[in-house]
Amino acid sequence: MAITENPKKTVKLLLADDHQLFREGVKRIINMESDLEVIGECGDGIQVIELCNELQPDIVLMDINMPVENGVVATQKLKEIFPSIKVIILSIHDDESYVFETLRKGASGYLLKDMEAESLINAIRSVVSGHAYIHPKVTGKLINQLRKMTYLDETGVALDNGHVKEAGVKYIHSPNSPLTRREAEVLRLMAEGKSNKAIGEFLFISEKTVKNHVSSILQKMEVDDRTQAVIISIKNGWVTL
Question: In sequence order, what are the residues at sequence separation of 6 or more whose Cβ sits closer than 8 angstroms to the Cβ of residue 117?
Answer without folding.
Answer: 29
